[in-house]
């Protein structure tokens, strides 16, 4: 249904990829992976016709309808959530104009006309509103919000409305760019189950390894300007990539040894008349060889160390008989909780149970109506919010933001740390207001790195981070000398870091003194992701 042949693309003379080829057949589920800046989103834009390749072709079957979910949502005007999900928020009008223009130009037999007509028909279906409501409910929207103006909602909720519209249309090729970034766990699980039985093909960019493992059946990796194909899910890809590297590296080493032996023989005997012809023969043998390139080692997470923070008291934080409510909605009544120095604790529980509220109470971002939050001796609290942009000065450059976090930091030290987090050269002068979600997350991590707290509270820290950066963060937090309390729906992240689990539900916070496997056993959850939302 989609074939890419020998694609080449460069920016400023630097090639992103060369001779990249990819084929997607009906019903396939494909992940496009690679480090930040490798060209994943560029390939998406070329497929969608938003950008031209330097060379190569993109071919689509005549009857292939493409639907695309970008990372960021467009303006929503005064339209309601349901109007976006049903296409009444301008999408239908735009499609109608496209169809009329193509009819006037005599292009009714074109692939573009078929695609526009199919989308128009899907959104004109008498059942479109019922379908849209079903998708919105699955993605976590309460029915009372269907008619709310979308501009009153956060960017993540607006993205869900756009995703609902895409699922209503049911394109034969669904292109998803980081689709899980804006989903809470319950919506993610629903979406994951929905995609498992989706009839069309899927091409996705994602940094969620659990999601890819559940959905995809092949992976294309952008590596060293090539597009390499692997069969299986993401875990299969990692294993195959390592095996391929070891095999190619062994072949390279063996050939290099063979060349060295032949060259040594030639060097030793080329001036010996009785063996000169043999020496020459060895040199010719080297010339005739098809040389094996030294393979690039699989990308590894970069290692960084969080400096040792000031030592705090044995009791890091304590909640004493805390009452908290949003208006008439009571979240906690008389909640007591103690966090000890050095603990590694994950908060889990059903959506809406109060996990983020508890983290904000611990951070001092929310003040209880009764009771108190008692920081321990010499407590220095760092709060890593879900809303990363709110913690950045939009008028600061990346470099300024880091240096203001620690005024004694030298510029060369700041630039060195920024380079480790892929802010290189002139990128350090970018204003924080133009950064992507992933860049904002990395910048916030750097701020903690240069001025570390001894109590680190993190709400979904892996959102917007690529897989290698998540691994780097895990390595750093494993050696972090302070206290860590976090919320995450990344099971891999939890398993690596959590030594205690607090289950939040029905206004209670129950502690399980053990790691994630211990909690799975004691909670009786059927699987790891189900355990995250267990009642």
Secondary structure category: alpha/beta
Total beta strand runs: 18
Q: Biggest sheet, strands in spatial order?
A: 5-6-7-3-8-9
Low-confidence stretches: none
Termini separation comes to 43 Å
Number of helices: 18
Radius of gyration: 27 Å
Portion of residues in beta strands equals: 15-25%
Q: How would you sum up the global shape?
A: globular
Rounded mean pLDDT is 89
Q: Major β-sheet, in short?
A: 6 strands, mixed
Question: How much helicity do the residues have?
Answer: 25-40%
Q: Could you explain the architecture of this structure?
A:
Strands 5-6-7-3-8-9 form a six-stranded mixed beta sheet, with helices on both faces. It has a six-stranded mixed beta sheet with strand order 14-15-16-12-17-18, sandwiched between helices. It has a three-stranded antiparallel beta sheet with strand order 2-1-4, with no helix packed on it. The protein is an alpha/beta fold. The mean pLDDT is 89. The protein has helices at residues 40-47, 81-86, 91-104, 111-123, 128-138, 155-169, 185-196, 209-215, 234-269, 276-288, 355-363, 398-405, 411-420, 437-450, 467-478, 491-497, 516-523, 528-532, and strands at residues 2-11, 14-24, 29-33, 55-60, 66-69, 173-177, 201-205, 218-223, 226-231, 315-326, 329-340, 344-348, 370-375, 381-384, 455-459, 483-487, 500-505, 508-512. Helix 5 crosses helix 6 (155-169) and helix 12 packs parallel to helix 14. The chain contains 18 helices and 18 strands. Strand 6, helix 7 and strand 7 (201-205) form a beta-alpha-beta unit. The protein is globular.
